[in-house]
Amino acid sequence: MSTLLLLPRNAVVAFLVAYRRIISPLYGDVCRYHPSCSAYALQSVQLHGVLVGSWWTARRLLRCHPWATGGIDDVRPRRRFRYLITPAGFVVAGHQKG
């Protein structure tokens, strides 16, 4: 059941991973923020899910413009994250230790 609930999240993760591997290198290192906008989107969706992660990503993209000062802008952590993130970036059921 939990795997089925993670399907939309992992579909977006798959899209973002593909974007980061195929499209993002064509632009080079142009992001004013760290992590880059695509890395921020990936982490945000992994941690917060599709709806909330997309909301945080949209807010970040609105701040990313030629006049932005940039800098470090990390994804807001969750107090309790009940899933594991695989080395490929997918979110799976399980509990993180620690």
Automatic annotation (TrEMBL):
How would you describe this protein's topology in the membrane?
Peripheral membrane protein
Q: Where does this protein reside within or beyond the cell?
A: Cell membrane
User: What keywords does the record list, in alphabetical order?
Assistant: Cell membrane, Membrane
Q: Which GO terms describe its cellular component?
A: plasma membrane
InterPro entries per record: Membr_insert_effic_factor_YidD
Q: Where is this protein primarily located?
A: membrane
The free-text function statement in the UniProt record for this protein reads: Could be involved in insertion of integral membrane proteins into the membrane.
Q: Which NCBIfam families match?
A: membrane protein insertion efficiency factor YidD
Q: Which family does it belong to?
A: Belongs to the UPF0161 family.
PANTHER family per record: MEMBRANE PROTEIN INSERTION EFFICIENCY FACTOR-RELATED (PTHR33383:SF1)
Q: What is this protein called?
A: Putative membrane protein insertion efficiency factor
Q: Which gene encodes it?
A: yidD
